[in-house]
Write a structure and sequence with these properties.
Elements (H helix, E strand, L loop, with lengths): L1 H18 L12 H17 L2 H21 L8 H14 L7 H16 L3 H13 L1 H7 L3 H4 L1 H11 L4 H7 L9 H9 L1 H15 L7 H22 L23 H6 L15 H11 L5 H24 L2 H14 L7 H21 L2 H5 L1 H9 L5 H16 L8 H24 L9 H27 L4 H14 L4 H14 L2 H8 L51
Length: about 575
């Protein structure tokens, strides 16, 4: 007990001395003993549960916290660990001294972490702090982490895989209604964020202790004026005249929206403009033409794993409106990724899996998202990536009946878009009939991709018409044109012939081509999943008419049900 009192007196005197005007008054973090004293009084207050101790030490800690924040811009000393220790005291004992910790937390993010996120010690301590107080943050300060997720992404982008597990522990705190949409492109652009940070480091020195946000803030007004000029007059953003600073002298050019979008510290909504600027193309070409840095290689691995967590949390926490709004964003970003083959494959696979899972869960989203779907179908041949996206959308439109039976107008418009895509491709395919068989590799790949897309379009048309009977006459005309076209790839016109044959048997057509999620059982149709529960008499006899082998009536389910 005596030793504990001595420790308390020693730590309290140390804090009181630092809080007064002393040698360390302008920079308390420069005295390493202050951090030990803060931790010491915190442990004593927690172990003794004495409200008197908490009340005595709180004014000293609050004053030290304010002095640290005020001195950050004038010192190179790291304040992160000291501020985190004081914040822990505020979180645990703030209710006893009527201290609201949220303004202090925001001050820490804006003033300290924005300068010290590149310090691995401070970064790890910050993640440990957020992880240990995760429940408090989610319940009491629910808007804090969603507001500062861009800053936290800079932290993980710079520090890499060694902090990934810690980062994933607190990742759920970034998800909120206001951050769900802007968080997706931020995660997809994590490798480009590394490129931007490395460029800033190369041009202006170490990121530790420097405020990227202040440089960004000074450039923003000029950038805003340039954007307004472009919007109203049609003129492009100027590159700067002879009086403008060179790249070596200016850490971030005011006319470079790449940095303005990526290097922000707080969430201010969607910012997709940087993909359309020449600066992005130049930056990416410079990166891929040289060996990738270790930090960039780690970001290429981390981003897909973060997307896994993001989509899992989105399905769990987001409402239908947000999920529906997320799908067009996924379509837009599917073809605009960092140009690394493995990274692009991993990200695109996750984007597609989530989008198709959403359509499976909520088929009516297809009708609601008719406009962006039609737009993506119109871009089917811009590049192979957009072709793959259009192919998957064709499958979804057909599989889920264009949104369901209650969305006939939307289904008709989607059908018309598929018709247009089909006729355009038939014309281009006929042009290719006269070409020699010994074409170039790229031409062969293009033809194969075109035939694959046509197969999906034909299937989608047949499925839509099966679900919406009013489209059957138009579907028969479309499929007949394909069947008679005899285009270079026989898979396409043979598939069209098969579907025309199926359409002559409506019950079988509905069983084969009808939506898999349809629960209504129409008379004469077969639910193949319940075959083991049915008697032979439940099978329509016209299914058995084509069975071979004597006698005609001797048959079994094995003749018509697929074998496992």
């Amino acid at each position: 007990m005596v030793d504990r009192d001595k420790k308390w007196d020693f730590h309290l005197r140390s804090l009181s001395s630092s809080a007064r005007d002393s040698n360390y008054a302008t920079d308390p973090a420069s005295d390493p003993s202050i951090l030990n004293s803060v931790k010491g009084v915190y442990e004593l207050c927690r172990s003794e549960k004495s409200e008197e101790h908490v009340a005595r030490v709180y004014p000293q800690l609050n004053k030290i916290f304010q002095r640290c924040v005020a001195s950050i811009s004038q010192t190179q000393t790291s304040n992160g660990l000291l501020l985190l220790a004081i914040l822990q005291f505020f979180l645990d004992f703030g209710d006893r001294v009527l201290h609201d910790a949220e303004p202090s937390l925001r001050t820490f993010f804006r003033s300290c972490l924005s300068r010290e996120f590149a310090d691995p010690v401070v970064a790890e301590a910050t993640l440990e702090f957020l992880s240990s107080n995760k429940i408090k943050h989610l319940k009491t300060f629910a808007s804090l982490l969603p507001q500062f997720f861009p800053l936290m992404l800079k932290l993980i982008a710079w520090n890499g895989e060694k902090l990934e597990n810690l980062f994933l522990r607190v990742f759920s705190g970034f998800i909120s209604p206001g951050s769900l949409l802007p968080l997706l492109p931020a995660l997809v652009d994590l490798p480009i964020l590394v490129v931007a940070l490395e460029k800033v480091e190369k041009s202006s020195g170490s990121l530790v202790g420097s405020s990227i946000a202040s440089i960004q803030k000074s450039a923003a007004p000029e950038m805003l004026l340039a954007l307004m000029d472009e919007a109203y007059t049609g003129s492009t953003i100027a590159d700067g005249g002879a009086d403008s600073e060179s790249e070596d002298n200016a850490p971030m050019a005011a006319s470079d929206p790449l940095f303005l979008d990526l290097l922000k510290d707080e969430n201010d909504g969607l910012a997709e403009r940087h993909w359309t600027t020449p600066a992005m193309s130049v930056a990416l070409q410079a990166v891929i033409s040289t060996p990738l840095s270790n930090r960039l290689k780690e970001a290429l691995k981390i981003a897909p794993r973060l997307l896994d967590s993001y989509f899992a949390l989105a399905v769990q926490d987001a409402n239908d409106s947000l999920i529906c709004a997320l799908i067009p964003l996924i379509m837009a970003r599917y073809s605009t990724l960092f140009p690394d083959k493995i990274f692009s494959y991993e990200v695109q696979r996750r984007l597609l899996e989530f989008m198709l899972a959403v359509f499976h869960q909520s088929p009516h989203f297809i009708a609601l998202l008719k406009k962006p779907i039609v737009d993506r179908l119109g871009e089917a041949y811009d590049n192979p990536t957009k072709t793959e996206l259009a192919l998957q959308l064709c499958w979804a439109v057909g599989e889920y009946g264009g949104g369901g039976g209650s969305h006939k107008d939307e289904a008709r418009e989607l059908f018309e878009s598929l018709e247009l895509l089909l006729y355009e491709n038939l014309s281009s395919s006929r042009l290719g009939l006269g070409e020699t068989a010994h074409g170039s590799g790229s031409s062969s790949h293009r033809k194969s991709s075109q035939s694959r897309l046509l197969c999906f379009v034909v299937t989608a048309i047949a499925k839509l018409a099966t679900y919406h009977h009013e489209l059957l006459p138009r579907a028969r005309v479309s499929l007949a044109k394909v069947a008679r076209s005899r285009i270079s790839d026989p898979r396409v016109w043979k598939r069209a012939q098969d579907y025309l044959g199926l359409m002559s048997e409506p019950a079988i057509c509905l069983s084969v081509l009808g939506p898999s999620n349809e629960v209504v059982q129409y008379p004469g149709t077969v639910d193949w999943t319940e075959g083991h529960k049915k008697m032979i008499a439940h099978i329509p006899f016209y299914l058995l008419g084509g069975q071979e082998g004597p006698p005609f009536h001797d048959f079994s389910f094995a003749d018509i049900l697929p074998r496992e």
